[in-house]
């Protein structure tokens, strides 16, 4: 059963056509990767799925709801959460508060005028568990802006997990990392997203082929092919369009 | 952490007790000045919730202060026998409504457009107060008598300077405490998220429009309460209370006190009122000197007086700690 279905989505920015009829089906509990050359429209597609932009045409269905008109926060509450390619955290607040924000939101304590965050036992327990998972437990009281780049990327993943989403959208989680850092980050992602649905944009081919069970190739604003990693690897069109360009 | 909290709590209790004992120690004039300081402290605290905590620069905070001030003035001149508590409650509710209304019109705008639109709304309310002579008294303003407080067994004579000071101290301290508590709640935390990264908040499920509206309404109603006490204190309200000048006042005193700390506006208010009192003894051009101080503060001490105190404290701590560290290191 598909959790997320993107149907004939078009997007143009003042006449510049970025997406030209994207169709995508993300299976429940699947690990779906989107690859494609720079400028193929991968991040734009993420922005449309997560609600940052509205599609010019087409439908997006999440858990059988048409979510095309919903705002980002409403989509999040239905059970999806995204990470950002360019680190997007709460810089002057502690690591703990960064993660706690999403957990608090998922527990319905967004605008409470009486409860104090330190007394929310369940929220704090879940926050601690996430910090443990992403390996930032030791730096929990440090402002997010003072973390190293690798740690900030880990926090980015932590914030994405914080609202306990069914569908996790990850936009190049390993961007700018060294090979070792990448390997570790992928391990973190693998563990942290176990049992959930993952849709990931990635450049590193090794990462993709080891993590994903389905790969879609986005090229010039449309999905060129969507298949298992083995099939994608041997697909001639994909080789021509994308894999060939790297070598 | 708890040790520090206990220390802070004890310090506040002493501040309050100190303030409560002052009528026995100083002149009536000083008490009157102190009353004014408390009123402007609450006004500044509400402004700092917007600016320092929420990161929203408003040039229209005086509209709420003014609406509170006029609510008190109009109730006292047109409805005979309005009890004291009714004035306070009405000022609170009416400015809350005004805050909700204006806030809901400003949900989509941020940064400079937000600042300019708040200025425009302030001017709109100023124009209403100025032109609607029959109700507001226009340029002449409204003179009022403070109503006495009847407790049933005991009547408080509010025309007594010390009595009014105590009433102001109790009601407005409780309001400042409520504002402080606000910063510690889940909503207070949400306000910090707004300042830091409003864009990311949306993607973890926060409706930023709701967050803004709650903050705006909250700060408006407490600013209105300060405004009501302003009218009661001076027994007079005119367009000054709702003018852009009144916004400048709160902006100045909040900046001078410092936006980085909750107590900033409290210090700023004391500093502002005393300095104004001192300067106006020597010259009519005290706003000029106030402006100079503001410029110097913004350029050289953007953290304000509270920022100077905090960094001074840190410096002292470092000085006393560093020898010990060296010993540990060897």
Explain this structure to me?
The complex is a heterodimer of chains A (247) and B (330). Helix content of chain A is 38%, strand content 25%. Chain A is built from 9 helices and 10 strands. Chain A has a 6-stranded mixed β-sheet with strand order 6-7-8-3-9-10, sandwiched between helices. In chain A, strands 2-1-4-5 form a 4-stranded antiparallel β-sheet, with helices on one face. The model of chain A has no long low-confidence stretch (mean pLDDT 88). Chain B has 13 helices and 4 strands. Chain B has helices spanning 2-21, 28-53, 62-78, 84-105, 111-131, 133-136, 161-184, 186-203, 208-234, 244-257, 264-282, 286-300, 304-329; strands spanning 142-143, 149-150, 155-156, 236-237. In chain B, helix 3 crosses helix 9 (208-234) and helix 8 (186-203) packs antiparallel against helix 9. At the A-B interface, helix 2 and helix 3 of A face helix 8 and helix 9 of B.
Radius of gyration of chain A: 18 Å
Uncertain runs of chain A: none
What portion of residues of chain A is helical? 25-40%
Protein chain pair with the most extensive contact, residues per chain: A-B, 37 and 24 residues
Taking all residues together, what is the mean pLDDT of chain B?
Answer: 89
C-alpha Rg of chain B, in Å?
Answer: 21 Å
Largest sheet of chain B: 2 strands, antiparallel
Query: What integer is the average pLDDT of chain A?
Result: 88
Shape of chain A: globular
* Number of DSSP helical runs of chain B: 13
Strand order of the largest sheet of chain A: 6-7-8-3-9-10
């Amino acid at each position: 059963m598909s959790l997320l279905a993107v149907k004939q989505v078009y997007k143009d920015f003042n006449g510049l056509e970025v997406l030209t009829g994207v169709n995508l089906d993300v299976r429940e509990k699947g690990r779906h990767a989107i690859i494609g050359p720079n400028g193929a429209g991968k991040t734009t597609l993420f922005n449309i799925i997560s609600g940052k932009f509205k599609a010019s045409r087409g439908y997006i269905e999440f858990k059988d709801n048409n979510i095309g008109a919903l705002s980002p926060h409403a989509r999040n509450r239905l059970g999806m959460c995204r990470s950002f390619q360019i680190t997007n955290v709460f810089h002057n607040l502690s690591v703990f508060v960064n993660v706690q924000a999403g957990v608090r939101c998922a527990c319905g304590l967004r605008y409470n005028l009486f409860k104090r965050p330190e007394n929310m036992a369940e929220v704090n327990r879940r926050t601690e568990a996430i910090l443990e998972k992403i390996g930032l437990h030791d730096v929990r009281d440090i402002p997010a802006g003072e973390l190293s780049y690798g740690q900030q990327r880990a926090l980015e993943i932590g914030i994405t997990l914080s609202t306990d989403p069914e569908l996790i959208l990850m936009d190049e989680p390993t961007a700018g990392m060294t090979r070792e850092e990448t390997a570790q980050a992928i391990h973190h992602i693998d563990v942290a997203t176990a049992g959930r649905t993952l849709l990931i944009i990635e450049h590193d081919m090794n990462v993709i082929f080891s993590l994903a069970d389905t790969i879609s190739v986005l090229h010039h604003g449309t999905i060129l092919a969507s298949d298992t990693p083995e099939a994608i690897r041997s697909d001639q069109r994909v080789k021509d369009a994308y894999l060939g360009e790297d070598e | 952490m708890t040790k520090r909290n206990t220390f802070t709590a004890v310090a506040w209790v002493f501040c309050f007790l100190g303030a409560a004992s002052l009528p026995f120690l100083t002149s009536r004039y000083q008490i009157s000045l102190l009353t004014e300081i408390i009123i402007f402290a609450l006004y500044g605290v509400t402004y700092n919730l917007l600016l320092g905590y929420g990161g929203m620069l408003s040039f229209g905070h005086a509209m709420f202060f003014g609406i509170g001030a006029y609510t008190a003035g109009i109730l006292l001149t047109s409805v005979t026998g309005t009890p004291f508590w009714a004035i306070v409650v009405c000022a609170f509710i009416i400015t809350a409504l005004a805050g909700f209304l204006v806030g809901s019109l400003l949900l989509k705008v941020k940064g400079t457009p937000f600042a300019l639109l708040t200025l425009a709304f302030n001017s709109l309310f100023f124009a209403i107060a100025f032109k609607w002579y029959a109700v507001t008294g226009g340029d002449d303003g409204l003179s009022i008598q403070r109503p006495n407080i009847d407790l049933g067994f005991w009547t408080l004579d509010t025309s007594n300077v010390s009595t009014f000071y105590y009433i102001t101290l109790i009601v407005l301290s409780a309001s400042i405490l409520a504002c402080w508590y606000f910063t510690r709640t889940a909503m207070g935390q949400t306000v910090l998220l707004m300042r830091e990264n409003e864009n990311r908040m949306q993607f973890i499920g926060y409706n930023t429009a709701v967050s803004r509206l709650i903050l705006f309404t909250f700060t408006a109603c407490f600013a209105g309460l300060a405004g009501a006490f302003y009218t009661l204190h001076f027994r007079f309200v005119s367009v000054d209370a709702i003018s852009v000048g009144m916004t400048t006042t709160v902006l100045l005193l909040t900046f001078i006190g410092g936006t980085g700390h909750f107590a900033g506006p409290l210090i700023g208010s004391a500093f502002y009122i005393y300095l104004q009192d001192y300067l106006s003894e020597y010259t009519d051009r005290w706003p000029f000197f106030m402006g100079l101080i503001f410029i110097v503060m913004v350029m050289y001490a953007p953290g304000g007086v509270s920022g100077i105190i905090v960094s001074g404290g840190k410096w002292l701590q470092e000085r006393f700690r560093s020898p010990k560290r060296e010993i540990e290191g060897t």
